[in-house]
Amino acid sequence: MAVTKTPEDAYTAEPFVPDHGGLAALRSAAAGCRGCPLHRDATQTVFGAGKADARVMLVGEQPGDQEDRQGKPFVGPAGKLLDRALEEACLDPVDAYVTNAVKHFKFTRAEPRKRRIHKAPSLREMTACGPWLAAELAIVEPELIVVLGATAGKALLGSSFRVGEVRGTVLEREIHGRAERLVPTVHPSSVLRADDREAAYQGLVADLKVAARALT
């Protein structure tokens, strides 16, 4: 008896990405994405947010618990910390486009009804979601991409990416067929987990100041 395959078995969002339209069309289409199994447990797709003409694009890992519930990126504790760091680095959050490499919340929990615990997406899941990020880049055409953390870095720059080796530097790479400038840094959630939170926060701000200078 033949096994019936579902769209998520293919692990690619490509069939769901519209071939025309702007960010609103992408966001609407992404709400129905079934390109990988992550959609099954998530509350909703969390697409990018911001201006289509933003000069800088901030790319994180995936939505967290609050983002999954509210349907918006970077609205939880890490997002609030990121906004504060951006302002301190003289980068206006309002002028940035923010998104994630993976658009659905991946989590685990020890028992039913218990708190949902973030689980890092696999390379296969990041690759499946790649067409959405490629489409966002093609529309926004940012002057600079700020890479927030290892998962975002691997999604954009390959599995050999190590944030500690290149953070706070301006890289020039071809991403999804476009020449891009990127500044990698840590994900703001890692600052919240750090033993010395103030030192970690100042390190994030210093990296974002490199991004600010690269835009001048």
The best one-word shape is: globular
Instruction: Report the mean per-residue pLDDT as an integer.
Output: 94
Gyration radius, to the nearest Å? 17 Å
Distance between the termini: 62 Å
**Structural class label:** alpha/beta
Helical content stands at 25-40%
Largest sheet: 5 strands, mixed
Number of strands: 7
Strand order of the largest sheet: 2-1-5-7-6
Beta-strand percentage range: 5-15%
Written description of the protein model:
It is a single chain. By secondary structure, this protein is of the alpha/beta class. The protein has helices at residues 23-30, 65-70, 77-88, 123-140, 150-157, 163-166, 188-193, 197-214, and strands spanning 56-60, 96-100, 107-108, 117-118, 144-148, 171-175, 178-185. The relative contact order is 0.16.
Question: What descriptive keywords fit this protein?
Answer:
216 residues, alpha/beta, two-stranded antiparallel ribbon, 8 helices, globular
